[in-house]
Amino acid sequence: MNLSPVETAMIGDDLMTDISGSQEIGMTGMLVRTGKFRADTLKTSLVKPKYVIDSIVEVAKTLYTETMVSTLQHFRLFTILIVVLIAIIIFLTFFQTGVLSRSLISGLVPEKRPRSSRHIPIHSRTYR
Q: Strand 9-12 to strand 51-53: parallel, antiparallel, or no bridges (unpaired)?
């Protein structure tokens, strides 16, 4: 199958041999609550499997759920990336056409108003 250890899982009922050994080489450990399984050993052991399942039947469901969650997370990240890229493209398009640059400049530089002939500066007014 040509899979790396991180792409595989070890399913076993012995915490010390099955799960510990698999985790040491980088595999995912799935402990099944059958056969050699002891709840007290699981509580006191330093070895903690990624999954604890009741039956071998749950393997497919557990891995499917994990895959779906992972896929949804990747989809969300992909969606966010697409939105950011679209925003960058829109920004660059507006900036390149000058629409955005004119609006940015007009917001930063105060508008000069033409002086009217009726405009009299405050300091030159005479009061009666």
A: unpaired
